[in-house]
Request: fold
Amino acid sequence: MKTTRSAEVASAHRVGELDLLRFLAALAVVLYHYTFRGFSTGDMSTMPYPLLVPVTKYGNLGVELFFMISGFVILMSASSGSLRKFATSRVARLYPMFWACCTLTFIVTLLLGGAYFSVSAPQYAVNLTMLSGFLDVPSVDGVYWSLFVELRFYALVALVLLFRQLERTQLLLALWLIASVVLEFAPLPLLGFLLITDYSPLFIAGAFCFLIRSRGVTFARLGLVGAAWTVALYHALGDIPKLEAKYHTQLSPYVVGGVISVFFVVLIAVALRRTGRLAAINWVTLGALTYPLYLIHQNIGYMIFNAAYPTVNPHVLLWGTVLGMLVLAYLLDRAIEQRYARAFKGFLEGRLTAVLAALPLDRLGQLSFPARAHSKPHHGLKRKLD
Reply:
């Protein structure tokens, strides 16, 4: 099969270690849900799996790693400076797979939902927009909450591209971090929502790691990553009492803080190109599994447990379901991402080019600061605990 020039360029800029990290983060979340979260509150899964709970109850931290990787990757995606390319790449990457996974979860819920899960056709239709979290419509699957956080981050990046401020990325990230800290002590709910203050240090740290990798390491960049680490620790440790009360468990602040710190160290190692042989291995296949695995595993897995337990041995049921979800993710990637994503992206580029051509972008560009100028410095969708 011939490789297109765009594919070659994408491959040349791909940071392979991030594919491995994404997969490990997704697997941690899967095991967190299957062995701990689903059974802990008695409202999702009837199957306990206490053997792994001492470890997997920390698996929700995989989402923190997702957000850090997103900060790195999304800034890399936006580095061309083209709003059209950024928007089409994000929509083409997210929506086709989301539509497939949402539809599959909807169908399985109608068939196996039982007493724990239900969904309506109007609810499903709103979910297909990927905006249900902003419209107070229940998600078809609970894991969608993180997509709503990601979409807000994409919107901020799009604004930077729209106003042609990409060259001020470092300054803007620093101001974002400062604003996030200020809003922690002087909260303004709407501004906090728009600036994603609960998770902003993770996105900011990932973005600075991309700047270190692409532009070089400086004391300022390392210092700001360190500041983001401090704020991220503050949030993660502050969530512990709420999580303990909700899930009737005990969480070690040393483990939580240690895991978050390891994430930062690993991403800095990626930024500094100090990952050794890991960088030479092709992790693309594992990376490709991550998005469909994340979208499809939770509610469908719970419904399988509820239908089969205790008839089926819990060890067989757990690991069989994990393996089944990995196979399903692979098939979805082959059927959706590899077959339709490029054509869908081409379709979007044509439509978006026409839309952007009709907008007064030149006048918007005039609102940006000159190249050497110095810049002066909702309720809902609160920090998700599960």
Summary: The radius of gyration is 21 Å. DSSP finds 16 helices and no strands in the chain.
